[in-house]
Design goal:
Length: 86
């Protein structure tokens, strides 16, 4: 089973607020986030807005969000039986 939520049209909130909302969602459903992925935009990519997906720890993601190093990300819980995405 996969549980998740996607948040779109977030021009009126910043990445830190989105991170707080995501963590609150998982807390509300009783799931502990233990992994994250974010977009790293490539300046020399094949096309405009070409990107790479970077797997990262939740603590490191929090640091990157606070410093402005990333603003598009996924939060999830990795387990053999279940994977929850945001």
């Amino acid at each position: 089973m996969i549980k998740g939520i996607a948040i779109y049209d977030t021009e009126n909130i910043n990445a830190h607020e989105a991170l707080d909302i995501g963590l609150s969602f998982f807390d509300a459903i009783g799931v502990c986030v233990n992994a994250a992925t974010y977009y790293k935009f490539l300046s020399d990519g094949d096309h405009n807005e070409d990107h790479e997906l970077i797997d990262i720890s939740l603590d490191r993601l929090k640091e990157n969000v606070l410093t402005g190093a990333c603003d598009a990300f996924w939060l999830y819980r990795e387990r053999k039986e279940i994977c929850c995405f945001l």
